[in-house]
């Protein structure tokens, strides 16, 4: 249990500082701004307490908001995807989620991409909707969501593939 706690603590801190110090300074072509910190929410263990998970998601988003002075939009988007994560897990992994036995290193790549894509697109749509907060600029919200989501999905999939531990058969 302490191994899981230490891995998640390190993941929380590393993703927080990576987002704040490096990734928040990327604004490629005016649309692309990766939000890699959501990887903490995506990879958090399924079996843990849901209220603790929601609180940690809020704390992660709020920490990023405090560093970047973004007024709570990261916290709102983080809590939203943490709250709907069980639906995305059920949709992407089916019976594995029903039995609470999901290990991302042993799942198929297509299932991982589906799961990451669903939650990333939802996160980015909520994030940019709160950031722009003007319905007349829906095209700008959708452009930002699309381009940033593609880049974030690619980074998340790449990192999960690189750091996944394959078990020997």
From TrEMBL:
Query: Which parts of the chain span the membrane according to its record?
Result: 12-32, 52-68, 113-133, 145-163
Keyword match Transmembrane helix:
yes
* Membrane is among the record's keywords: yes
Could you list this entry's UniProt keywords, alphabetically sorted.
Membrane, Transmembrane, Transmembrane helix
Name the chain's protein. Answer: Rod shape-determining protein MreD
**From what organism does this protein derive?**
Bizionia saleffrena
What's the source species' lineage? Bacteria, Pseudomonadati, Bacteroidota, Flavobacteriia, Flavobacteriales
């Amino acid at each position: 249990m302490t191994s899981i706690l230490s891995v998640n603590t390190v993941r929380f801190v590393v993703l927080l500082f990576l987002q704040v110090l490096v990734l928040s300074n990327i604004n490629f072509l005016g649309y692309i701004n990766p939000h890699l910190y959501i990887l903490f929410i995506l990879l958090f263990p399924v079996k843990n307490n849901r209220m603790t998970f929601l609180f940690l998601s809020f704390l992660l988003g709020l920490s990023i908001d405090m560093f970047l002075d973004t007024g709570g939009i990261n916290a709102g988007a983080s809590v939203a995807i943490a709250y709907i994560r069980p639906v995305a897990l059920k949709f992407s992994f089916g019976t594995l989620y029903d039995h609470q036995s999901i290990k991302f290193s042993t799942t198929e790549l297509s299932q991982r991409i589906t799961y990451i894509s669903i939650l990333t697109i939802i996160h980015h749509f909520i994030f940019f909707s709160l950031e722009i907060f003007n319905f007349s600029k829906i095209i700008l919200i959708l452009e930002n969501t699309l381009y940033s989501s593609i880049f974030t999905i690619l980074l998340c999939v790449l990192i999960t593939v690189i750091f996944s531990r394959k078990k020997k058969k």
